[in-house]
Amino acid sequence: MSHISPILWQFLVKWMTSFPLFPPEASKVAPEMDALFFFMVLVSLVGLTLVVLLVTSFSILYSKERHPVAVQVEGSTLLEATWTIIPLGLFLVMFVWGSIIYFRVYTPPANSMNIYVVGKQWMWKAEHPGGQHEINSLHVPTGRAVQLTLISQDVFHSFSIPAFRVKREAIPGRYTTVWFEPTVPGTYHLFCTQYCGTNHSAMIGEVVVMTPDDYKKWLDESTSGTSLAQNGERLFASLSCNACHNASAGARGPNLANIYGSKLTLSNGGTVTADDAYLRESILNPSQHVTEGYAPIMPTYQGQVSEEGVISLVEFIKNLNSDYRIQQTLNTTDLLPESEASPNRPAAPAATGPAKQGMVKQ
Amino acid sequence: MSDSTAIAHGAAETPGHVHGEHPPYQRHHFETVEQQADATNFAMWLFLLTEIMFFGGLFTAYLIYRNWYYPAFVAGSHQLNIFWGTANTAVLISSSFTMAMGVWCAETRRKGGLVLCLVLTFILGLVFLGIKTIEYSEKIEKHHVPGFHYSLQSFLNPDSDPEAKAAGDKPLPLDMARHTEVYFSLYFAMTGMHALHMIIGISILGFMIFRAQAGAYTTGHVTFVENFGLYWHFVDIIWIFLFPLLYLISRHQ
Amino acid sequence: MSSTIVNLPDQSTARIPKVNFITKENGLLSWLLTGDHKRIATLYLISITFFFFIGGALAGLIRLELLTPQADLMATDTYNKVFTMHGIIMIFFFLVPSVPATLGNFLMPMMIGAKDLALPKINLLSWYLYIAAGILAIYTMATGGVDTGWTFTTPLSTHYVNTNVLTTGLAVFIAGFSSIFTGLNFIVTIHKMRCPGMTWFRLPLFVWSNYAASLLMVLGTPVLAITIVLIALERTIGIGVFDPAKGGDPILFQHLFWFYSHPAVYIMILPGMGVISETISTFSRKRVFGYTAVAFSSVAIAIFGFFVWAHHMFIMGISNYAVLVFSLLTMLVAVPSAIKIFNWAFTLYKGSITFETPMLYTFGFMGLFTIGGMTGVFLGSTGTDIHLTETYFIVAHFHFIMVGGMLMAFLAGIHFWWPKWTGRMYPEKISQLAAVVTFIGFNLTFFPQFILGTLGMPRRYAAYPPEFQVLNVFSTAGATILGVGYLLPILYLTWSLKYGEIAGNNPWQATGLEWQTQSPPLTENFLVTPIMDHEAYDYEWLEHQKEKEVTSV
What we know:
The complex is a heterotrimer.
Chain A: H1 6-17, H2 29-61, H3 77-105, E1 113-120, E2 123-127, E3 133-135, E4 137-141, E5 146-152, E6 157-161, E7 166-170, E8 176-180, E9 186-192, E10 205-210, H4 212-222, H5 228-238, E11 263-265, E12 271-273, H6 276-284, H7 307-318, H8 323-335
Parallel strand pairs in A: 1-5, 4-10
Antiparallel strand pairs in A: 1-2, 2-3, 5-8, 6-7, 6-9, 9-10, 11-12
Helix pairs in contact in A: 2-3, 5-7, 5-8, 6-7
Chain B: H1 33-68, H2 70-78, H3 82-107, H4 111-141, H5 153-156, H6 162-166, H7 174-178, H8 180-213, H9 223-247
Helix pairs in contact in B: 1-8, 1-9, 2-8, 3-4, 3-9, 4-8, 8-9
Chain C: H1 28-32, H2 37-65, H3 76-112, H4 120-142, H5 156-160, H6 165-192, H7 205-237, H8 250-282, H9 291-305, H10 320-347, H11 357-380, H12 382-388, H13 392-422, H14 428-455, H15 469-499, H16 539-551
């Protein structure tokens, strides 16, 4: 030690004693997953020790000097059965245990609050229902189930919060979901873990877990003034969705009030639950999701509305609980700046020809 | 080298041996000519198995997208010309017949018959490719080639399109019309890959015609012709699957 | 250890046999147009060593960058290209052909008593395809590289990068055909060219393993080929088969890609397992314990290996029920590997064990493959996979299997069959040192990566949070040691070509038909076709042979 400079020594000691070996547990499922993880570590240690012990002891006992003549042993069905069944049994335990955790992580409870996350090269945008927008960060409260609805605007990304032990791919073209319940306030890493191009390593951020009171304060001070549903209402009007979906008798499109979560019968006879994915698909690929009793005349909005726009619309429809609310959007239409010269108020939506007008891109 | 437990092979002590012990076309690493025929035949079957896996990826994609976008697949399929498709099927089946006849000629040492059959197969193969060229140029004219000014007009407005009108197609909604591009992608990928295999086969046929004329296959060494026959029949069978899957979707007339 | 089974002829009088496959014909063309499986194997050995060092240099660059938390050694675009090319070269140009195209090509016909593979011209074609693909890969690197990751994920690879995706795809496509032809050749040879008396259950386990790997090569690789074709079409003319904007599905790409790429990992490891069977038997002087179980487990791994591909997609939004099925099948495929490890361990029981270099590499394999395999189960269980996937845990897992497992097995095989291939022994002491250095370097490089993965450090990151630095520094230090460990064999094996001791036919006193011929072997392998009248690994038969040789002079 005398030949190591004291400064270097100090640095080394600090360095060597302050690096983490295990991530913090900050969500409800984290200790559950860690229990399984440590079980697997234990089984692996036992297995490895067994193999190393066998190899070492046999090598010593039966080295050429000690055991010059080998004794040919064909095999042992009993041993084969043992080391087939025991590993298989252990692996099946891990399979069942792991599957339970997996189903839990990807089955959000009904009362979870939902935050939309859009991934794009190379940032994460989180949209809270109250209209708070975050880039590369996510504020969440403890003690509540939080669901994330993820989608990508371009390539595959993956939203990872190691401290919560959750991770989910964000894919272009469809929603994916994951949920967690944060338990310990603090700031934790957020990573993109699916290689997505040049700045993949920069697509990181922080997850800030707050007590419910602090979270409420944060929500108040970060709001942009318009909630997602309000933005969705604006879009609903400006894209003239209310031309057909206007909750009047004889309307050309089904009434969307209270539709979220309900079971619908489609024109091809199948039934479907109107969840987020269904709502998104109906906006972008309507001809495959026509409700029974209605004509397949809804035009597609693919290319006319961004993923964030779709999220706003979905949020609006989710919160739609009265016909009155829908009819009010006709007033919203009148208040829109484009309303004077809006060519997008057709008398009857054309069955042919794409809807080129009304480009409302967010 | 253990020799007490081995049987001497042929004329033995010297590494060389007398030619005359085996036919000249038997390669030296084979013990008998039967082993050589057996091994090369097995190898060709294995190779065809790899080809099945190769086309399998395309068939998988077809399966999934036809399931998802059936109306688009119907509309796309109605754009194909059934007359040419059927003609091509007949041409290929005939070429398989002439090929099988060629194999028989080789096995029965009929040189003239073999050359005739190979030439006929060659010509039929070229006819197939010719018809495909006609079909592809029709598609190009109508802008149904994905990635090259792909046009949705025929699907949004079927009355403007003779094939769609004849099939009695209804107009497709825009989002479904867009999915016809997936159908045509698969059409060109699958028939294109098939055509590539046809071109390779026809080239080998050309080579074989010269060799057959020189008598290479009618002196007992028939495995090349037999194994090529297997390849040719395989390419034919792929078409037999492609034809109904691509041309015959929902044709009730 | 002073005790050894090596039995060399008297060095003062021993000579390399004058006529052998190397001296039979001279001139470059006789090598470039050869049909002799042993010459083709030699060509392959030189080529894959070349590509291994390119891949290794790229790995060195990765580890250098990761010494510091910032992306300060090279631009992130460059780093992305470096790890992509490292993966592509190591997988397609080193690991997939490593044992089959070198040791498999060289040994398999001899092991079954044949004069050559069934299709020598196809064998040579296979090498030329490999070289063409390799040249294309180098051209790709020289003209800007590719940065999609070896997994070519769409839509990134089809729409969002401007790098050489097409040329790389073409290189991999051609290399795939090289692999298919090798596998096809092996299957036909094993089925149709076994010598009289060589029943399936008298085959050396090395042959069984290569057979199983060949099944995978032949059935899996074509799916990769068509996937690359679809990527090329999507990238050039935008056919939309993987593009959600056109109704395509990027998850379809994942299914097609992993349908090959999962069996690919078994293609990479099975031949290595075959080597281990041979070495552990020879250096314990015993028939492999549970021969039938080991043989069947190779085929079981191949078959099950086709049904687990979606375990690479657990978090991608596929249905929960599909996830259940693939997780269960993954657990099943782990069992045959466990069976093999225990059978090898019990081969040592009541054996007569010596510790020459191939045995040291074998022991290294057994320990490191066990760790790698067990961590695979961590990933096969979906609950833990959520946390561990896409992190350095995966990187550590597959490097333990591929480098700690496969590469060690490859080196074991090279050392074991070096005397047969070249007629000369390698220097024992320095090679044992290299084996130990490799083992230490390997553990120091990759074990910290398990911890980094558990902490959440994502893979393919050029920059990382500072608290991960210490572990990364350990990893880079280990990589330096590992590099030394791999450099040493190049040096002493080359040295041994001129100065190594003359080996004679059977320096290890091994069973196996390849050891009953001269070293290096004749071009036609055997002057007379052998008749297999004894079981595999029959050491009593070997004793009997030796007695007969002595008494019949």
